[in-house]
Amino acid sequence: MSSSVLRADAVHKSFNGTEVLKGIDLDVAEGEVVCLIGASGSGKSTLLRCLNLLEQVDDGDIWLGDAEITDPRIDVDAIRRRIGIVFQAYNLFPHKTVLDNIVLAPVKAGGRSRAEAASTALELLARIGLEDRAGAYPDALSGGQQQRVALVRAIAMRPEVLLLDEITSALDPMLVGEVLDVIRDLRTEGMTIVMATHEMAFAREVADRIVFMADGRIEESGPPDQLFTAPQSARTAEFLARHRS
């Protein structure tokens, strides 16, 4: 791990007068895997959406490399091309094939030729064992297959950082492993990842750092072995005791 890729400084966000993020400070290094854990409503998803500029922060700054991306003059679309995000809902276009879903953004937003984008897409599909499904439509795929395609669609844009928001939550337990295997591979390849997850055992295995969020704040942050075995906060300990897996 080396220089900072993504940084949040004192980020606040409210919805309808309710403060959801209460001064978040988070610094993600190049090649680091950060897992956000915490109860529903703790602010994990809102933080990810703010980091990708899907939500505008009320106060504080977010930096991508040396650029302050919360600057109102920033080209939001250009920033989103540099930060991939995948949600628990696959959000694949149902009327497009798997291949067309993947090549759309690299061609339309990335300026790549159809041939180059298709070659990359087929290579990525081969790596996750779905090259034979390139011509299929999403409704012909299992949930695990659709989520793996959604991951490939995100990394086909060659993002500097990948945000993952509870991407296994909607999957049958039998299919979760397929998706987690892809994340293991991305980690091995050095992808910078920030992911919200409820898969505690997986988080402990793949994360360089665990961030426990509670009530819109970062309650505790540290290496997995330290945080899972000797949490410093009573709230962290209580949460982990309820979510042993």
Question: What this model shows, in words?
Answer:
The chain has 9 helices and 10 strands. With 245 residues, it is α/β, with parallel strands linked by helices. It has a single domain (4-242), classed as P-loop containing nucleotide triphosphate hydrolases (Rossmann fold), CATH 3.40.50. The strands form 2 sheets. The protein has a 6-stranded mixed sheet, sandwiched between helices. A 4-stranded antiparallel sheet has the order 2-1-4-5, covered by helices on one side. It is globular.
Give a quick set of tags describing it.
10 strands, alpha/beta, four-stranded antiparallel beta sheet
Task: Note the topology.
Blueprint: E1 4-15, E2 18-29, E3 33-37, H1 44-51, E4 59-64, E5 67-68, H2 76-80, E6 83-87, H3 98-108, H4 114-127, H5 143-155, E7 161-165, H6 173-188, E8 193-196, H7 200-206, E9 209-214, E10 217-222, H8 224-229, H9 234-242
Parallel strand pairs: 3-8, 3-9, 6-7, 7-8
Antiparallel strand pairs: 1-2, 1-4, 4-5, 9-10
Family: Belongs to the ABC transporter superfamily.
Membrane topology: Peripheral membrane protein
Subcellular location: Cell membrane
